[in-house]
Automatic annotation (TrEMBL):
It comes from the Bacteria. This is Heme exporter protein B. It is found in: Cell inner membrane. It comes from Reinekea blandensis MED297. Required for the export of heme to the periplasm for the biogenesis of c-type cytochromes. The lineage of its organism: Bacteria, Pseudomonadati, Pseudomonadota, Gammaproteobacteria, Oceanospirillales.
Length: 223
């Protein structure tokens, strides 16, 4: 089974590499939004520093949302999604591989880009490691929870807007805890509780999302 999972993950990464434009869109969106924010709002470094955590978090999650609609769509269109559900390998593990690959090609690059963009928003350098940690947890949680919405809308031609409406309420706690942890650290206030809550939310998503995603896929595919 380990061999099958490695092959599945390698397949997903190979297919993602072939669709480089789909990978570049979230990164360019993240870059453009954060770059334009000082121009459109204020160039004052003090005010930017106060808003930096929230701006980076919201921009990163919105950027990651751009590619969620494609999580299962290509497999659904070529029929491989149905074969995946009928495979002898538990479908939950295969879904977990797909969501992990989505995070590797979307959430992880956004996290690695965040230090450069945080400097533009005058975020204290000491807060950058915590920002990257919270973004890594938050974007992974986004991929896990977003998989549920992507499974429900995979059969719709224009399901991107519906997908956003379905899963956005689930992301509100993630944004609150992640932003609050970074901002509290930057202001010299306690921040470990927010980080713990963010981690607990991510662990909960990791535990339940594969099962809910598979159930949604079976309903959509009609298996």
């Amino acid at each position: 089974m380990n061999v099958v999972l490695r092959q599945m993950l390698a397949r997903e990464l190979t297919l993602a590499n072939r669709r480089r434009s789909d990978l570049a869109n979230p990164l360019f969106f993240f870059l453009i939004v954060v770059s334009l924010f000082p121009i459109g709002v204020t160039p004052d470094l003090q005010k930017l520093s106060e808003m930096a955590a929230g701006v980076l978090w919201v921009a990163a999650l919105l950027a990651a949302l751009l590619s969620l609609d494609l999580l299962f769509r290509h497999d659904f269109e070529d029929g491989s999604l149905e074969q995946m559900l009928l495979s002898s390998v538990p479908a939950q593990l295969l879904v977990l591989c797909k969501t992990l690959s989505h995070w590797l090609v979307t959430g992880l690059p956004l996290t690695l880009m965040s230090p450069v963009l945080s400097v533009m928003l005058a975020l204290p350098v000491s807060a950058i490691p915590l920002l990257m940690l919270t973004l890594a947890i938050g974007t992974l949680t986004l991929s896990l929870l977003g998989g549920i919405g992507a499974a429900l809308t995979v059969g719709l031609r224009k399901g991107g807007l519906l997908l956003t409406i379905l899963i956005m309420p689930l992301f509100v706690p993630v944004i609150i805890f992640g932003t609050s942890a970074v901002q509290s650290f930057a202001n010299g206030m306690p921040w470990t509780a927010q980080l713990a809550l963010l981690g607990a939310f991510g662990a909960g998503a990791f535990a339940v999302s594969p099962w809910l995603t598979v159930a949604a896929l079976r309903v959509t595919v009609g298996d």
